[in-house]
């Protein structure tokens, strides 16, 4: 399968700040997201189409112009051949400006130079109105709590007028937290129970990459909607493991857009054991379709392969005691008793 030659990415990670607390996760998280973007099993974007911008400890870089230059290079490369998709990822400090606008804070920010930040809303509008891309995915791993008298800067590039094709652009914004709330980085426990080898990372990016690497798969695809559903389920659980409360915020086009196709459908082999014999047991999916029914036997469990979804097992005429079965696709075998 050829690379997605019409896709591009701008990826920014900022650990170091003039006045705000130094972070430990953004640079590593930006590199991890970049690895997914260029991976043949991930975004499969050509490395030359990806722009990775990281902070430097003592120089207070990057400045806004450094980031905007990346978009300028993309603009030059798409003059002859329109782009298909853009990924814009930012990890660092953030401040909430409104329900749909976040100040993506740059290293120079302090209480005097309090507008050294990018306006996510202005960047979204300008990039959509450029007409360069059919799809734009924004991923913002940063806080959205408020500070008084803070503004985000619009991009230094612009459009003479909105492109005729701007209205056809689908855009999706995945934010690490809800407006006015914080986002966190933590030493995260893996699904096997061990601590991650590369230390502290952003909770949002951890959940995001789990989803993009397969946990958000539905019917062999990862889509804008399946990714949103995954983040809404998975991210709060990861946060709870670190004794934090964090809920993502997702905004965007109502149309469901495929991010990755052709994935292997995740199947979980479910063993259902019975505590009584001689009753008619019924297994249904979330649409009440009967997947299996038969007479229970305490010595003969059912072994059933199930894809990701919600299911119910119950005895005939005992629906009020039905037991839910939740399959998230991340575990190969599960056991349930009824």
From TrEMBL:
<dbReference type="GO" id="GO:0004197">
    <property type="term" value="F:cysteine-type endopeptidase activity"/>
</dbReference>
<dbReference type="InterPro" id="IPR011600">
    <property type="entry name" value="Pept_C14_caspase"/>
</dbReference>
<dbReference type="GO" id="GO:0006508">
    <property type="term" value="P:proteolysis"/>
</dbReference>
<protein>
    <submittedName>
        <fullName>Caspase domain-containing protein</fullName>
    </submittedName>
</protein>
<dbReference type="Pfam" id="PF00656">
    <property type="entry name" value="Peptidase_C14"/>
</dbReference>
<feature type="domain" description="Peptidase C14 caspase">
    <location>
        <begin position="8"/>
        <end position="252"/>
    </location>
</feature>
């Amino acid at each position: 399968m050829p690379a997605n030659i019409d896709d591009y990415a701008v990826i920014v990670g900022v650990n170091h700040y003039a006045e705000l607390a130094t972070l430990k996760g953004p640079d590593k998280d930006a590199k991890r997201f970049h690895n997914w973007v260029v991976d043949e099993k991930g975004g499969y974007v050509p490395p030359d189409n990806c722009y990775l911008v990281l902070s430097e400890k003592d120089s207070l870089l990057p400045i806004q112009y450094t980031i905007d230059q990346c978009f300028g290079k993309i603009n030059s490369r798409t003059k002859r051949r329109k782009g298909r998709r853009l990924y814009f990822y930012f990890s660092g400090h953030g401040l909430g400006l409104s329900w749909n606008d976040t100040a993506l804070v740059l290293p120079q920010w302090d209480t005097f130079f309090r507008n050294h930040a990018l306006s996510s809303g202005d960047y979204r509008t300008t990039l959509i109105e450029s007409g360069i891309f059919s799809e734009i995915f924004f991923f913002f791993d940063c806080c959205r709590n408020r500070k008084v008298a803070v503004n985000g800067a619009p991009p230094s590039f612009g459009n003479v007028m909105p492109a005729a094709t701007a209205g056809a652009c689908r855009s999706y914004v995945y934010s690490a937290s809800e407006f006015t709330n914080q986002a966190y980085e933590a030493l995260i426990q893996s699904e096997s129970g061990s601590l991650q080898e590369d230390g502290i990372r952003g909770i949002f990016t951890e959940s995001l990459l789990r989803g993009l690497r397969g946990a958000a798969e539905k019917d062999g695809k990862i889509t804008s909607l399946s990714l949103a559903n995954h983040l809404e389920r998975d991210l709060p659980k990861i946060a709870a493991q670190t004794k934090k409360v964090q809920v993502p915020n997702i905004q965007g086009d109502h149309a469901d857009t495929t991010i990755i196709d052709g994935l292997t459908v995740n199947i979980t082999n479910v063993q259902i054991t019975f505590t009584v014999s001689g009753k008619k047991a019924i297994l249904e999916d979330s649409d009440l379709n009967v997947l299996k029914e038969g007479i229970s036997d305490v010595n003969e469990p059912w072994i059933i392969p199930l894809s990701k979804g919600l299911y119910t097992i119950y005895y005939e005429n005992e629906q009020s005691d039905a037991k839910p079965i939740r399959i998230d696709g991340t575990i190969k075998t599960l056991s349930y008793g009824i």
